[in-house]
Amino acid sequence: MDYTMEDTQNSAPDAVGESKLNSSAPRNDTQSVTKRLQAELMQLMLSPSPGISAFPDADGNLLSWTATITGPTETPYEGLTMKLSFAFPNNYPYSPPTVLFKTPIYHPNVDFSGRICLDILKDKWSAVYNVQSVLLSLQSLLGEPNNASPLNAQAAELWDSNQEEFKRHVLARHRDLDDE
Amino acid sequence: MSTSLANVPLNAGRRRVFNSVFSPASLQARSPFSPSENENLNASFQSTGSSSTVRNDSFAVIHPDGVADSDRDWDRAWTAATAFLAVPDLGFAPVYEGKDTDGSDAIQAFGRLSPPSRETADALTYLVSAAPQAADESKNLISWYGDEIRRHFLLNLRGGLHQLLKHPEQAGLLRDMVKCLQLARRIYLTPVIHELMPRLRASTQGVVLTQLQRTFHAVVSYSLPWSQISTLLAGELAQSAIVILGIDTLLEDSSSDEDSENDMQIDRHYSVSYDDWRQQSPEDQAHMMLDSEGSHVTIARDQLLAFMNGLEVVGLGGDKAQKVFASVMNIMMTEFVRAAYTDRWEAPTSALAHLRHWVDNVFCRLVVQVLATIHTPTTDNRVPSTADVSSGDIEKWQEISVARLGALRTSELFDVIVEWPASAGAIEDLRQFITHPAARAYVTQSFIASLNQRLLHPGASTVEILQLYISIIRGFHILDPKGVLLDRIARPIRRYLRERDDTVKVIVSGLLAEAPVTAATEATLPSSTDTLIELSTELARAHKLSLEHKDSELDWDDANWMPDPVDAAPDYRKSKSADVIDSLVSLFDSKETFVKELQTLLADRLLQKREHYDQEVSVLELLKVRFGDSALQACEVMLRDIYDSRRVDGVLHAKILSRFFWPEIQDQEFKIPDEIQSIQDRYSAGFEAIKQSRKLTWRNGLGQVTVELELEDRSFLEEVTTWQATVIHAFQSSDESTTKTVEDLTEELEMAAPLVRSACLFWVSKRILAEIKRDCFRVLETLPSEDEQHVAGPGSAEDENSVDDAANAAAAAEAAAAAAAKETAEAAAMEKMNLYWQFIVGMLTNQGAMPLQRIVMMLKIVVPGGFPFSNEELREFLAGMVTRGKLEIVSGGSYKLVH
């Protein structure tokens, strides 16, 4: 017997009906989003991938996370740590999360406000992707930028022409977001 | 009577006089009364237009002829008559002193009996009857006498009575006052009756007497403050009513059961006691309270009625007194119910019948008698005996009394439940009471309140709460077979039980507990304090019941189907039988919690070395009926493992456990002796040959070994744990009388130090080893003789007092074992902590440094199933990580990852 539902059952019928009509669908969604994100977090914790990490923000509703990517070796980003913000929509995973670089980064597919051009975060999004797969994609993007559709044309050009200069730009732009 | 008076034309005038005389202002002004002021009084009467002088005027007007003669005659007659009738101002004392006599002395003292002189008699006759308007004339003299009564009362008696009222604590005060007033009344009325009445016409006699009585009543009730009188009256009534209604004997009975045995024997023929009544046959019961009442009751009754009569006579009765009487009787009803039925919970109950009988025969009798005495004046002309109390009233009283009994039982309900099933009678009583929703709500509310206060607090053990819950389930099932009340009551208990960590454990261990073998042992051990043995009996019993009638909610052929009661909660679910087990098991959201605990407990019990596991098997079978086979599959496998293992018993009694189905078992790792190791290897090889797909992992820490030790002067045979055996084995292999330190052993056996120490201390307690110095042990090949012990003296402490020493060592061994167990438990906890460590790392990596509070908060949010550790435990854990160099503490006490 589940008594936890007692209160809702005992409240006035109108109230219940109203809440059912108006807010039950989004609320249930929020619940399922939370559940999904919790599961993703658990998976991240139990089988961590090297170089990536993510955790919910302290606001407690699990819909915004902060992630960390360590620059892959043998790329201009080697040894650098990049922070990203994840904002999950209410209908996640049916819509992609909004992902931004918080750490200033010099990269062909990232603009100066941290917006990312990555197909799986836009039209190629699918519900089978998750935080981990997004982070892994971004990690590989660091080493293999998609210069066909650059957000930062200069970076795209430099990447192809002058790797040394590119790396100098990367280091110049990079600034560790230390713990505020 | 009032109607007849209203016809008298001068009645209104007389009232005006009354008002003017007794208007508070005029009385205060005139308080120091004295006879000399009589004239003043008359003067004031004059001003109101209806006084003696006015009377003279009117006389003159009516008889214009022969004025002088009749005037003189009249004046003379008036003087003589008033002088005769005037009440001497003797003060209050003679009245007070005369109250306990027959009163004749006092009346004599006031000169009320001396016959009038001839002249006066003539004057009286003249005044009363000579005049043509006899009614007027007599009234005039009568109303003068009324004034005289007022004057005398206020002057002489009022002060005295007030003086008496200043000591309300004095016993029988009101009775004394009433006696005084009665006497005063006689003093006032005696001459009227003796002298005036015979001279009046018969038709006016009654009118005159009532008139004077009214005057007297008015002045009495004016003089005595009713608030005080009513308090006194209530006390007086209560005192008598307690005796008459039999409440006093009840109280005596319950307070001194043994020593008043003799008195009770005497009184036995009249008793309202419930216990006595129950023992009688039905015929006797019917007569019991009707027939001869006890002499003291009769006396009390007569006294009360006489007193009430006096009260009525002096004008203190009437509806005001009735109100007081009603409130007293109301209290008495409660008192009686309380005195008669408190703690009388035996079944079968007849309390209700007894109570109805009492109301009918004792309560009503008193009410009728008293009301007949103090009937209101307006009901004068009615027949007083039956009209005051109708059968409807009696029915109402019956109802009230039932409600009172219900209230009593409700207040006792908690204790009733505690005493269950010895208190079934009380539940029966209550059942009669909860016939309407308000009463049901009252019962549940007050019971929940007492539950919260008395049971659902940290001081009560879970076993106690569960025990009581079982009683509640049974008791309320009788009280309300529909189960609505139980449903309501159970909610707070269930909510509370769910919060307790050990609830599952207690329930499961109760289920697995050995059922009492015979009824005799059950009687001697009705409820064990630490396990709910009752549960296992209940399990067997309930199973039989469930076989008898299979009922489901969807039984379409149920001709006796009833809708849910109106006051049932929305999610109320009818439970047709008082199924205790089901109620307890359904405490938890899923069976899983329950089954998991069952597994753990079952594992413990199965791993003990025992001949048979019948109890476990039967319990499991019974539970399977309840939960279905699939839920208990794991337990099933566990049992089969044990039986299978037995079949392959050899030198080694191994118990092969299917790891997947068994709960996690904490183990202590250590190296077992080589001999055993080789046997184990052989066993494993054999097993793996038979069962291809299965592999054996040995749990060395669990198990028992029969150890046989041959020492120089004695041998030793006992069953010990494996690690204890391993430690003593280490001593065997070494040379005689070598000493080994705990450190050596730890290294040699790869065993945890606390465990080694515990094992050594165990052997010290068995007097096999001796601790030479701390953590250094030696085999005690020969027991030191008594002499040696004394010689050895304080130098070798462990030999000094062998018995004490052994006991101490045993205790120490136990403590050490506990410490070792704790250590492994802590290790397990740490393992769990590792998962949380991942979370903490993720958190600190992404969110930066955080203080402890924040970490705990986040963990509580993000970890599925919540974070089970306290702030302190986490702080300790994090401190460990700091020392390991994985964390650092930065400004503000925040933890930061070290990269």
From TrEMBL, chain A:
Region: Disordered, residue numbers: 1-32
EC number(s) on file: 2.3.2.23
Keyword Disulfide bond: no
Keywords: ATP-binding, Nucleotide-binding, Transferase, Ubl conjugation pathway
Record bears the keyword Protein biosynthesis: no
Polar residues composition-biased segments: 1-12, 20-32
Residues at the catalytic site: C117
UniProt similarity note: Belongs to the ubiquitin-conjugating enzyme family.
Protein name according to UniProt: Ubiquitin-conjugating enzyme E2 2
Organism: Penicillium chermesinum
TrEMBL record, chain B:
GO process terms (BP): cell division; metaphase/anaphase transition of mitotic cell cycle; protein K11-linked ubiquitination; ubiquitin-dependent protein catabolic process
Gene3D superfamilies xrefs: Cullin Repeats (1.20.1310.10), Cullin, Chain C, Domain 2 (3.30.230.130), Winged helix-like DNA-binding domain superfamily/Winged helix DNA-binding domain (1.10.10.10)
Domain Cullin family profile stretches: 541-764
Region (Disordered) location: 29-53
Key word Metal-binding present: no
Origin: domain of life: Eukaryota
MF terms in GO: ubiquitin protein ligase binding
Entry keywords, A to Z: Cell cycle, Cell division, Mitosis, Ubl conjugation pathway
The family this protein is said to belong to: Belongs to the cullin family.
Name this polypeptide is given: Anaphase-promoting complex subunit 2
Source organism (scientific name): Penicillium chermesinum
